[in-house]
Amino acid sequence: MKKISLSIVCLFFIQFSFIGNSYCLNHEKNKNVDECQDLKCVRTNIDEINKKIVLLLSERMQYVIQAGNIKLKNNIATAEDKLRASQVINQAEKFGIENSLPPGFTKKVFEEIVKGSMLYEQKDMDKRKVKD
Ligand SMILES: O=C(O)C(=O)C[C@]1(C(=O)O)C=C[C@@H](O)C=C1
Fold first, then answer.
1. Ligand 1: does its nearest atom lie under 6 Å from the Cβ of 65?
2. Which residue spans adopt a coiled-coil conformation according to this UniProt entry (predicted)?
3. Angle at Cα 70 formed by Cα 64 and Cα 119, nearest 5°?
4. Is residue 1 part of a domain?
């Protein structure tokens, strides 16, 4: 009942006010995990975290592309740096464990991130090589 009346109030707000609009559509966002007691709330927050992860990956990729630019300037034609890649993965795995993630989880995620980054960096470097 409480939910239905809140929805009616929200429908009214969405029609007539910007502040009400954002409150009604966003009030489940950024709830801490203990405040989230239903799947809808949990999934709303997971979706928001996913967006933050994607934004960080996009920012990271800009630095990866810049690494490729610097390599080309220094006459290095290969994006892959195996030593650095394994340092990045091991450092992330250690930090993951320190932050309560299951062993091996962060390693797997970062293996994919670093491999995908390297392939995209190489593609971009090859494109530039042809152009210059
Ligand atoms: O540090 C570099 O040289 C990069 O190009 C970045 C990066 C990474 O994603 O962290 C990508 C490819 C290399 O194999 C190593 C590391």
1. no
2. none
3. 40
4. no
> Could you identify the atom of ligand 1 that is nearest to the CA of residue 68?
5
Q: Is the CB of 84 under 6 A from ligand 1?
A: yes
Atom 15 of ligand 1, residue of closest alpha carbon: 85
Q: Is 115 in the pocket of ligand 1 (CB under 6 A)?
A: no
The residue segments making up the domain with residue 65 are 53-131
The reply to whether ligand 1 has any atom less than 6 angstroms from the CB of 106 is: no
The domain that contains 112 carries what CATH number?
Answer: 1.20.59.10
Instruction: Tell me if 21 is assigned to some domain.
Output: no
Distance (Å, whole) CA 122 – CA 119: 5
pLDDT digits (tens, 9 = 90+) for 18-55: 555 555 567 788 889 999 999 999 999 999 999 999 99
d(CA 116, CA 53): 15
H or E segment at 78?
A: none
- Please tell me the pTM assigned to this model: 0.86
